[in-house]
Design a protein that fits this description.
Layout (H helix, E strand, L loop, with lengths): L1 E7 L3 E8 L3 E9 L4 H16 L6 E7 L11 E2 L2 H12 L5 E5 L4 E6 L5 E6 L8 H10 L7 H6 L12 H13 L4 H22 L6 E4 L6 H11 L3 E2 L9 H19 L3 H12 L1
Parallel strand pairs: 1-4, 4-5, 6-9, 9-10
Antiparallel strand pairs: 1-2, 2-3, 6-7, 7-8
Helix pairs in contact: 2-8, 3-5, 3-6, 6-7
Amino acid sequence: MLCAGIDLGSTYTKAVLYSPRSGVVGAALLKTGFKLAEAAEQAYRQALATAGARADQVAYVVSTGYGRHQVPFRDTQVTDLTAHARGASFFFPGTRTVLDVGGQTMKAIRIDHQGKVRSFRLNDKCAAGTGAFLEKTARTMGFAIEEIGPLAATSHNPVTISGVCAVFAESEVINQLSLGSAPSDIMNGAISSLVERSLQLMKRVNMEPEYTLVGGILRFESMARTVGEKLKAPLNVPPADLVQFNGAVGAAWLGWRRVEKLRNQGQLEEHLRERVGLVS
């Protein structure tokens, strides 16, 4: 018996299949696009394929993310704050502060020992406080998104990028290129700017260790390293292939908790029969 978590984000859709015995047994990631329900369905089917599982083996589906209400086969939905808090606790039970840096949002969350949200702060609406800032910087210099990490890793003398506004930051990047600054140093400077914004959010939630970093931008090792250097503290980061799936993992884990509750109430069999009708 499996549970699924669908994180329908503004940039990427992630799907995870979770087994209480084996942990994460299947996962899929694809660009969300404009057809949200279709993206959720496609990611779910891909996750089933990677797990070698069938839809009738899934007992519960929990959706999260900005498009969580657009997943037609869900049993319930939770906010991305709740999902990321639970996902971080799943990977690292001692987590007390979570930083999630995604393509369009950045969130700092303080949680308790049960993984429940105690306080949170979100970035303002400017893209300079999100992963899109780094992606825009890379594109301005003619690099692909996948090259952000390797590029920053070769930096020797990072330049200062204010990051107050994504539009103004682009002008700064162009100016630095005209001055002969190395693209690697410019990218490293952009990462440092994003880190400064993330630390401000973490301070506003009264951050405390352990610190866990999640989100698509954390697949670039230089981001986590720079945060660690600023905090002067060890950091938790999920395994490289799962760092983008934290919200989906948290949603799937919450699904399993719901299955256990239904079983204890003697309502699981009825739920499973209804679920067959939902996905048929």
